[in-house]
Amino acid sequence: MAKKVAQSTSLPSLDQKLAMAKRYSHEGVVAGAKAAVMASIATAIPTLASVRMLPWAKAHLNPTAQALIISTAAGAAYFIVADKTVLASARRNSFNRLSTSNSEA
């Protein structure tokens, strides 16, 4: 009986879990925003250069298409990096929790 009580007190409370979730989601947002900026720059330079230099691109890529290409790359980079960051943080937290519960048992 005492073992169960000791284990239940060592688990993080609901407030701690909520705080960790907020911190991890904020880390994901920041990392995603950084990736979106980098993807925008990396996509905008060749897109705008090709529209100025290549006749096919000049004829077929109007400003809306150019913006769509750049924003699609930025959006994809944001969601991929944010998701990977949140999942990595959750995985790290679950391993930390497993190691602390194994050391107590």
TrEMBL record:
Keywords: Membrane, Transmembrane, Transmembrane helix. Pfam families: ENOD93 (PF03386). The keyword Transmembrane applies. It comes from the Eukaryota. The keyword Transmembrane applies. The chain crosses the membrane at residues 29-51, 63-82. InterPro entries: Enod93. This is Early nodulin 93 ENOD93 protein. It comes from Dillenia turbinata.
